[in-house]
Amino acid sequence: MRGLVKGLGITLKNMTKPSVTHRYPDVPLPMPDRFRGIQYFDPDLCIVCNQCVRICPTDCITLTGKKHPDPEKKGKVIDTYDINFEICILCDLCTEVCPTEAIVMTNNYELAVYSRDDLFKNMEWLHQNDENVRKENNLNKPNLAPGGNKK
Q: Residue 87 sits in a domain of what CATH number?
C-alpha cells in the first residue's frame, strides 16, 4: 500500500510540471538564429563567380551562366543554379564565400520526400524559400522584413 501511495505522489508531482514535449508536426520547432538550414538564393544578386561551387566539399552545387545579352555590360547572367540536397551537408561554406550574399541560410529544415529525385532543387525553388532567413542577413536584403518574410 505504501508503494502505491508513493507512486501516486510522484505522478501528482510531475503532473504540475510544464510539458517537455513539442507539438512538432503541427507547430514547427523554433530554431536558433545560427541554425544552418536550407539555403535561400536570390538570382538577381548572383554574379556567377562560381566561388560557391569551388568551395563546396560535396560538389552538390551546379552553377552555369552566360554572357550578358547587352554587349555594353560586363559580366555574366545566371542561367541555372541547382543544389542536390541528397548529398548537401548544409555546411554554410557557400554562404560564407558569396561576395554579394546571393546565397543565405534559413532556419527551414524540412526536406523529407518520398523520392530522391525530389531532393534536386533548382533556382526557382531556392528563391521561393524566403521564410525564416537568418536575421543577420536581413540587414542586406531590402525586400525581406526582420522576421525573414517578404514585406
A: 3.30.70.3270
| Residue 147 belongs to a domain | no
Closest CA to 90 of 47, 40, 50, 43: 40
DSSP 38: S
Whether residue 49 is annotated as binding a ligand: the answer is yes
Which of 2-16, 26-40, 111-125, 128-142 has the least mean pLDDT?
Answer: 128-142
In a domain, 144, yes or no: no
Classify strands 120-121 and 61-67 as parallel, antiparallel or unpaired.
unpaired
The domain in which residue 84 lies consists of 31-133
User: In terms of residues, how long is the chain?
Assistant: 151
60 assigned binding-site residue: no
Kindly state whether residue 87 falls inside one of the protein's structural domains. Answer: yes
Count of domains for the chain: 1
Query: Per residue in 57-109, pLDDT tens?
Result: 999 999 999 988 888 888 889 999 999 999 999 999 999 999 999 999 998 88
Q: How far apart are CA 141 and CA 133, in angstroms?
A: 10
Residue 46 annotated in ligand binding: yes
pTM above 0.90, yes or no: no
